[in-house]
Amino acid sequence: MSEAGPQTLSWGAHLRGLLVGLHVLAVVLVALPAPEGGMNRASWADPTVQAEFQAWADRLGALGLDLGPEEIEQQAWTLAQAWTKGRNVVLKPIRPYTRYLGTNQPWRMFVAPHTHPSRLHIELREAEGWRTIYIARDPTLDWRADQLGHDRARSALFRYAWPGYSRSWKQLSRWLAERAAEDFPQATHLRLRFARQQSPSPEEVRAGFEHPRTWGQTRTYELGPIRAGELGPIRAGELGPIRSGEGR
């Protein structure tokens, strides 16, 4: 019996191989790391981010490289801008393809623990003053907790505490103001804000020490116009100072 000669692949097989190779190349290129979502200079002022620059300055200093955190930040920003611009140029031709097939890579690796986390507080203003109706992960202050405490909502709220997501935070806060106008017909205002607090060290936990809180991303709504079909956000602080004991 004679040995079979080498098989000749059809042009269709060659075409399939080429398309598979192009698809793999597209997925690999889209998976190139990028600081997407982090290219907002205001976000880099966050204490957690600044602590990372200081940590790298200390590490490099131990190796004899005298670079301060400000210099490291500036160099990192310049490099991130150049990398992001180059990556966008490379990906531009294949974006329609990856969007059509749903092969985008939206997830990013965690780069550092968040040592200054934010926690959402929601307060109502009634005749007696401010009253807190929701604090994230507080079982006793749980207005709309079935929605705000959902896994996907918690992921979104983590982002909305950062300056780069102000538009999404505004949309959610307006929606919550509408719900509050329905649920609390006697309330006059709704205030939403994030409390930021440094995570304590093990020694501080044992000593019962808590770092002071700072407030940010505050949005205050007048509920009367909302009930009348209008949205009326007012500037933080327009209602005057909050007396000790109001809210929580």
What can you see in these coordinates?
By secondary structure, this protein is of the alpha+beta class. It has 2 domains: 11-101, no CATH class; 118-234, no CATH class. Helices cover 44% and strands 15% of the residues. It has 9 helices and 5 strands, in the order ααααββαααβαβαβ. The protein has helices at 11-30, 47-62, 69-91, 95-101, 145-148, 151-160, 166-183, 202-207, 223-227, and strands at 118-126, 129-135, 189-196, 214-222, 232-234. It has a 5-stranded antiparallel sheet with strand order 2-1-3-4-5. A hairpin with a 2-residue loop joins strand 1 (118-126) and strand 2. It is extended, with a radius of gyration of 26 Å. The termini are far apart. Mean pLDDT is 84; it is low at 236-248.
Q: What's the arrangement of strands in the largest beta sheet?
A: 2-1-3-4-5
Note the gap between the termini: 91 Å
Task: Please report which band the strand proportion falls in: under 5%, 5-15%, 15-25%, 25-35%, 35-45% or over 45%.
Answer: 5-15%
> What is the total number of structural domains?
2
Structural class: alpha+beta
- Portion of residues within helices: 40-55%
Whole-angstrom Rg: 26 Å
Main sheet summary:
5 strands, antiparallel
Quickly count the helices.
9
Q: Low-confidence runs (pLDDT<50, min 5 residues)?
A: 236-248
Anisotropy-based shape: extended
Q: Which whole number gives the mean pLDDT? A: 84
Number of strands: 5
What is the succession of H and E elements?
HHHHEEHHHEHEHE
